Amino acid sequence: MSYHIAVCAGIVPDPLQTLEPVSGPQGPALKNEMMLPAVLDPWAAHALYEASHLAKNVPGSKVYLVSLAPKAKLQQVLMTMAQKVAFELVALDGPSSGFTESADVASALAAAIEAIPGLDRSQLLLFGGWESAARAAGTTLAMVGERLGITEQFQGVDALKVGADGSLEILERVEGGKHQVSVCAGAPAVLGWATGSLPEPPNSPQTGMQNMRTVMPALQKAKPAQVGAHAFLSVSLPKQQRTTRIVKDVPAAEVAREIAAWIRGS
Amino acid sequence: METILVLLHPDAEGAIAKAGLEAIAAAHGLGGEVIIGLVGGNAAGAAKVIGGAGRVLAVEGDAFSQSRYATDAAAAQALVAASKAGIVMAPATSRWSRCLAGVAQRCGGRIDSHITAIAPEGVTRWYYRQRIEATFTRAELPWFLLLESGAASAWQGAPCDGTFERIAVEAAPRTEVKGVVSPGAGEQTVKPEAELLFVAGAGWTKKQKDGAAHVERAGELILGIVRTAGASLGSSKSLVDLSGEGQAVLPFLSHLNQVGQTGSTPRHPKGLATCCHGEEPHVVGWRFIQDRRAVNLDANCGWARGKADVLYVADAFEVMEELNRLLA
Ligand SMILES: Cc1cc2nc3c(=O)[nH]c(=O)nc-3n(C[C@H](O)[C@H](O)[C@H](O)COP(=O)(O)OP(=O)(O)OC[C@H]3O[C@@H](n4cnc5c(N)ncnc54)[C@H](O)[C@@H]3O)c2cc1C
To answer: What's the whole-model pTM score?
Structure first.
């Protein structure tokens, strides 16, 4: 038993950047989108770390990183990501904007995964983030799974344990800060990861060198993906800058009294 | 106007959660024929409660009472086919959020999630994790919409006779649902219905003015407020991440408490941030917190810059000692 783990991961603007919407020829976009520093989508990055961890523990397994993004920006992001875990890159050239159509992205990703030479679909684990930090919809991965005919799907995954019989015990986030525990008979399955439990792996120049042998050719042959967007009526930043009342040099007891009254609604 | 199917999962007693009643009201607000699709639970009981909202179709049976992709997707797909709906709405529960994108794919439709407002002209949702708000519409059908709570007021109607049509669905899932567990120390600290969100930041674990950290006392003070105020406990990423780095941390916190960019975006009428700097990746998770207050030693922290209504420049240890006494 070994797995072929395809991790779908886009790139998103670094969360510390200020974002401003503008209208572009293909619909809404971000101001200076190509100039904003980008990172691998955070929840998808957790999925990648979990995939790598699983592949190390199940000999013969292989990790594919499947990414649809402007290839020049993807290359920049991979300069650091490629040093963290070993993977084979499957790249598609196209927009990484949150305003694009999730169904189109799913169609392109599913076709790219189907075309991976030697992929064993019966042992496929389709990983990704349960939501991106761009569209933040949590819809793409499920559609990729459906296109690949995978009917066992999990979202908001924080833990995966493989049993001796190949069964998969999965913890998914549900309401009220709890986890649902499910046992799936085995691959194929879709796992949309939340935070998981692994820290960000340290950079390893050796892993980076090894990855770069496949990353550069994959980027060179990245096919353009057909990704559209639907019609937007309005796109805007929130208007809710608050007027902050700053309370200073007041004894703690008085602050506590004011907060207590506020909590009690008086 | 298209026929609208509202998907709901009643519980074993037939009760429909508030978010489900809001979805019914939102559907009626659009003006088309409304059909209710029930999956699992006690359909007869639920039909008595919501039958006045429209024709009721139901997929019943043990396999469908559990929250699981294979069975929920098969049931929803059958209900969409039976209803011939052009618009399919559901509350954004973890259960519907897990399966409806796949169902949209099966039905050749489109899906939009995290809908915060809905009107005949278009729907509204946030992009880039609550940073940019957009309103749009679509031509493709069926159009699936996952509604956030608060997108409409709850539907109200008189109880009725509970008539419903049973839809037969076959399913052979390869997944068994074992149950639900709470992480960490077992106490439930995430409470979606709470009036107050109490956020703890990494400052609680930092060296204080006496030169020492007081993590144990911090834990007691935080839990004290969570218990006495009935608050939901949120956290910054820095604080929950500390546990991964082997530092002394608060045992009752996990990533499920994390609010922000890579955490949750909870909905509460009030929020109180303590020892949290109020950086943008954290504060995007406060988008739906109405009244916001913060306690921080730093008068120039993020909260001071239009992110909170009130910032108390004060020592959170001292304030929370007193607040615990006042609320006890
Ligand atoms: C990709 C990415 C995603 C991220 N996602 C998130 C996210 O989802 N959620 C999130 O929270 N962050 C997120 N961040 C991190 C974010 O940028 C901040 O680093 C983090 O929120 C800081 O946490 P903090 O305010 O608790 O800690 P700190 O920045 O360390 O602030 C501690 C605060 O405590 C105050 N303090 C100390 N002692 C006291 C006292 N006795 N009384 C009162 N105040 C005191 C200090 O003045 C200070 O303001 C993300 C970052 C990145 C790069």
So the answer is: 0.95
